[in-house]
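To: structure desk
From: M.T.
Subject: fold request, one chain
Message: Could you run this one when you get a chance? Sequence is below, nothing fancy, just the single chain.
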Amino acid sequence: MSNIVFVTWDGGGNVPPALGIAAELQQRGHRVRVLGHPVQDVHVRADGLDFTAFDTARVFRATDNSTPLDYVGVFGDRAMGRDVVEELRREPADVVVIDCILFGAMHAVAAAGVPYVVLEHMYDAYLVRRWLRGPMGIGMAIKRIPARRLLVGAAARLVACVEELDPAGSGPRPGNLHYTGPVVTGVPAAPTEPTVLVSLSTVNFPGQARAMQHILDALGTLDVRGIATVGASIGVENLSAPPNVEIRGFVPHAELLPTVSMVVGHGGHATTMVALAHDLPVLVLPMHPMLDQKMVGQSLVDAGAGRLVPKSAKPSVIAAAVDELVSDGAHRAAAARLGAAIRATSGARAGAELVESVATRRAAA
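Reply: Done. Structure tokens follow.
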């Protein structure tokens, strides 16, 4: 059996794919450890995985009011890289699985000569064509971290998404790039009445509370039942809900999605994929222009399984989009087709098998 280390960060939707693949590898008998920010300790251990907090890396919490410079600091954190290498000295690993935007850690692992797998929890098209060409990629260049070269040097790049939805999925690809599918599970939803689930980001994005209020106001004009899950990044105290909408704190998506008709979200990859796994169309209101949320929303529009409106949209615009998606139509068939494809494969199993293949090559070398 192999010794495998996962390196993650407190970013929200990037965590479930890492933990899902890590748990699958542990079930197969491998020694698995997870390194991350201290705030992730309880969450990771609750999944039955060993956790080690970064010792000297920059302090970061998803609920903090972070600036783009803060994110550049996290993604290019050389102290995080030193923490990972120190853990590898303490207990060597056969392979390290690293979040696709933790280039500071990736750089250190590459320099240490340990094989690494890059876990892409977003569309590859966004990572390569937008992220690396935008402010974050420029930030890595300023830090003299060769991000593109690190992707090329990975033993494998594991893309945990639906290949059909990724704009890069239909074109030529590097030899180390592999689509393994979303790390989600689901069943076809069977609501007893028109029900809308609203779930925005756990990250503290500017203007998110106002967008949530506009969504609540929109639902108040429709003959639907609404459920809005609200975390610390928004705060229940900042909202006023109409009578037909129930505001709740954190609730696992698996408990709610089988009973709803559609989802209103921010375009987070994880939330979108698990909604599709339940055959649900999605209305996307992107919360940040620098992230992949708009690309995710547009991919749903292109596939016929969702709609995309700006986070500044008025309640009347949101209400019209919800009224369309909550009803029967071609969008429901499109979402169901994508859902069936997601359920037909196991992203956790395929991801684990790819990581195993890298570890096996290391052992045979």
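Reply (cont.): Residues 347-364 form the longest helix (18 residues). Let me know if you need anything else for the meeting.
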